[in-house]
Amino acid sequence: MFNLNLLAKFGPIQNQLNKINWKNIGDLLLTHLFQIIIITIIFLALNRIGKSILNKLLAQYRTINGGNARGDTIFTVAMNVFKYSIIFFYVYLILSNIGVPVSTLIAGAGIVSIAIGLGAQGLVSDLINGVSILLEGQLRVGDNVTMMTIEGTVTAIGLRSIQLLDADGTVHYIPNRSITTISNHSRGPQSTSVFFLIENLDSIEIAKTALRESLGHLHQTEEKIKSKPVILAPFYDDDSHSIGIKVSFKVSRGYQAAMQTMVLDKILQALREKQISVLSK
């Protein structure tokens, strides 16, 4: 039944293909070889000029708006649309030039039959989801996101797929139709924390007081720290199964590691003044 249905869907296409005089097309191909070469050169030139114009427009956008991430996203999508448009019109002109009735072939087969027969449902889903993601501004090039349990940095946004670069350098190509949930970690301040152990738990209240004095105004003097640090002590850490001190705070996106290092340095300095030793895990 499946094969009969599949043949029925391809029936209109086969009828149109049978009507084509392939010998005549072969003669036309040789006759119009020079024209094909000229068309190829023109489209290569259009491709190069178009990419140059898009690059200049992106540079102007960055200058005016000062936003690299959004500019890169718009540029990626525009390049994809331009590339597919160039390919489509190039193939259409070449086929028309050698006598293939492209318009008649498409009209006779029917758009629905072609979409079903060639299995284009996935392509259509990719395009629709890709446009939705872009219009809603769910992510940009450079954002750190999680998709389908894969965490990484968005390196390209296409009409059919999204590319993610994870921490070990692996590039993941995720079809747009497969994306059901996007967790964007690059919108707004990011929560981060520092957990550490002290040698003597009896000194935990002294340590807490010292840290409040040292870190209490840090968010007012350091612009990358977006909230007053919260000191939790005693705190039980599930990962290490240990009791220690946890300092939580929010930072500007992309500065988690740098701010963690700075805060940890201030923590060690404050505890050293109180002669409280910190243990390594």
From TrEMBL:
Chain ranges of the Mechanosensitive ion channel transmembrane helices 2/3 domain: 80-121
Signal peptide: none
TM stretches of this protein: 29-50, 71-92, 98-120
GO MF annotations, alphabetized: mechanosensitive monoatomic ion channel activity
Keyword Transmembrane: yes
Function description: May play a role in resistance to osmotic downshock.
Recorded family membership: Belongs to the MscS (TC 1.A.23) family.
Protein's UniProt name: Mechanosensitive ion channel family protein
